[in-house]
Amino acid sequence: ATKSVIKYGTSLKSLTKSVSSSTFTTDQFITLTGLSPKTVYYFQVTSTTPAGKQITSDVYTFKTAVDSEIPTVNLDSFVATSNETILTLLGGSGSEAQVKNNYIVIPTGTVFQFKFALTAPSGAKVQAVIMKSDVLGTNTFVKQQEASTEIVNLIEIEPGVYAGNLQTNNKSGKYEIYARITDKNGNITEQKIANLKVINKFTVQNKNSGKNIEGARVLFYIFNESTGKYQIIPTSALSEGNPVYTDKFGQVNTVLPQARYKVEVSRLGFKDQTVKFTIGIKDDQNFPLVQMEKEGFNLISTIKYYLRTANDIFLFNTQIYAQILTGSARFFDLVAFVILLSMVILALFSFSRKNHVPVSSFKSYFFYLKDKNARNERYIHGVVYDDHDVPISQANVYLTKEVDEAIISHVKTNKNGEFFFKKGKDKYLIMVMKKGYKSTSLLKYEERDHVKFKVNLEQEGGVREIAHSLGHMIETVLGMGFEVILIASLIFEILFLNSFGILKTLPFLALSGFNLLLWTLHIRHRHWEN
C-alpha cells in the first residue's frame, strides 16, 4: 500500500500542479482538475510507502480533447423490456424524477433490452454498464470490473437513438445503470440513466425439507385497479405463458412489470397455495418464496390435478399454438395440403367402397374399362351370380393354370359381381368362393364373344353376421356420397388455385381428374352392359 502524488503541468520542466491521495491503498483513483482543452500535459507519479520509502515514475504525457458540448441522455426516452415485458414506469418531470421512474425491477440472471435517445444526434460512441449502488465512486467505469456484470457497446439504431442488451447479476441487490458517452472530439461524460433492483426468481419449495419442487403449476393474476379485483394474466402477455411450471430448481423464469399480483400454486401431493405479492422498488416488494405443505392421497385433489394438466397441455396450449400459427403462410400451406389431400383420398376411397374395387386395383380397372373393344382378347372376365341371378360382390375368385392347377392370381368381384384377369397364353381354371355360399369346383374358363363367363354360387343356410351387415351399411353410406365428395374436392382445388398456387394444387387436380375419368368410364361400362 502507498500514498501517491501526481505532479503535472504544460511543460516538461514545469510540473507546477499536484494532486495526492489521502490514504495508503493498493489502488489509487485520482482525478486531475483544471485542465484546459486541446492541450498537451506532462505528469509524474511519486508513491510513498508507510515506511517512508519513495518511488518516482518517468514523466508521461497526454493531450486533452477539444472543448465541445457533449450530448446527454434524454431520460424521458429510456425504455427497458425483457421478453416483450415493459419494465420501466411512465411519467415524471425533471431529470431526478425521471431517473426515479426509470426504476427497473427484474430477476437475477435475466437478459433485458433497453434503448434511449440523446438530446442531439452527434455520432457519439455510447457504452452502458450496471454498477452496484454502494460501491460507485468518482470514476464509475474504472471500477466496473469489481462492481458490474458487464459493460456493453450500444448500437445506434436511428440517428441519436441507441439500443443494447444487458444481463443482471446472479446476486440480488440494488444497482444503477450508467451511460458513458464519448463524442467525436474524445470528450467523455458519464450519466446515470436508471436504477436497477435485482430480485430472486419466483421459487417453490417443500416447507418441511426446504427442497425445491419441480413441476409445480403456477398461475399468475394481476390486480386490476379499475375493478379492484385480480384477473388472470393472458398467456400471450407473458413470454413463458400462463400458467407455467417450475424447473428442476423450483423456479420459473417469468418477468413481471411493477404491479400487485396473486398467484395460485398447485402440485400433486401438496396442498394448494394462494399468495399475494407486489413487484416494486421497496425492499419487501419481490417475488415470493412459496413453501408448500405435503398432504396424503386426496381423490378430489388428484382429479383436479389431472383435469388441470389436460387443460394446460391439450386444450390451452393447443389453442395458443393455433393462434400463433394463424398468420403463418407455411401453416396455411399445410392446412391447404391436408384439406386437399383428405378430399382426394376420401373421394378415391368412396369410389372404391361404392363399386367394391380396391384402390390398389384402380390402375388395372381403368385399363380394363378403357379397352372396351379388345376386352375379350386381353382379359379373362366374368360375372358371379347367386341362384336368383343377383350379382354377388366381394366374392373371392382364384385363377389357376389348367396344367398344374397352381393358383396364379386372385381378385374380388366388384359391386356388379364382375371380375377380370389379364390374359396370357395358357389355358385356365377358375374357382369362386364366398362366406355364406358353397364354393365352386375348378371351372374351365371358356371364351365367348361379347359374353362374360358366368358363375353361379348356391347360397348356404344361416343369417348374416351383425358385423358383416354393419360393414355393408357403412360401405353403402360412403358410396352414396361419392359424387358429392368428388365434386366438393374439385371445387376446393379450384378455390385454392390462386392462394395455394398452381404447382402445389396440380397433383391434387390430377388425382381428382383420374378419379373423374374412372367414374365416367365406369358409368359408360354399366350403360354398355345394360
Automatic annotation (TrEMBL):
<keyword id="KW-0812">Transmembrane</keyword>
<feature type="transmembrane region" description="Helical">
    <location>
        <begin position="502"/>
        <end position="521"/>
    </location>
</feature>
<protein>
    <recommendedName>
        <fullName>Fibronectin type-III domain-containing protein</fullName>
    </recommendedName>
</protein>
<keyword id="KW-1133">Transmembrane helix</keyword>
<feature type="transmembrane region" description="Helical">
    <location>
        <begin position="477"/>
        <end position="496"/>
    </location>
</feature>
<feature type="transmembrane region" description="Helical">
    <location>
        <begin position="331"/>
        <end position="351"/>
    </location>
</feature>
<keyword id="KW-0472">Membrane</keyword>
<dbReference type="InterPro" id="IPR003961">
    <property type="entry name" value="FN3_dom"/>
</dbReference>
<feature type="domain" description="Fibronectin type-III">
    <location>
        <begin position="1"/>
        <end position="67"/>
    </location>
</feature>
<dbReference type="InterPro" id="IPR008969">
    <property type="entry name" value="CarboxyPept-like_regulatory"/>
</dbReference>
<dbReference type="InterPro" id="IPR013783">
    <property type="entry name" value="Ig-like_fold"/>
</dbReference>
